[in-house]
Request: fold
Amino acid sequence: MLKDIKAVIFDMDGTLVDSMWVWAAVDEEYMKKYGLKEPDNFHEEMEGMSFEEVAAYFLRIFPVIPLTLEELKDDWHRMTAKKYKEEVALKAGAQNFLGMLRKRGIRTGIATSNSRELAEMVLEARGVREQFDCVLTSDEAKAGKPAPDVYLKAADILNVHPKDCLVFEDVPKGILAGKNAGMKVCAVYDEASKGQEEKKRKLADYYIRSFEDIKNNTYEVL
Reply:
């Protein structure tokens, strides 16, 4: 999997850290607080959107929410910061894999749809921030996934050609973002996207249940 790879770029939520349960709790709290009902394909519609795009989508489909865009983003940060700092864990085998990449001289980056504040918070809290040569958000790249912008900009910052990059992603639109950037992509299992496994396998080059599959050479070549 890592042959000829010069940089590995990770999505964060659901890929590097087990955090999707946090956002499910946020959605549930908002549904109850404002008497809302989730429309069909609610989570799939938001998949890949940047933090700001998700907030704008929320306000568009739920106009009864009496908040501005900035107020909604601030509220989400307030609701999630403590969980990201104290409860969100790295995926199994992720820390060892990051160490292996460092030993091999492979550059590393984060390309996340989350906010920079939460990304920096969880990486610092889990003691891995120094393992990354760059952290980039879709908001900073000015486009959500499946647009390739965040991955292309990360590769540019890392000074690596896209064809020499390997991406790790947990959802189809994220996988497409990596493929649209001309990169190899490894799909990562996550409980929140388990209903999309077939689609993920069709889009990706590799598949892992956890990062321990790489160390154990038990990953799937698709």
About this structure: Residues 69-86 form the longest helix (18 residues). The chain is about 45% helix and 15% strand.
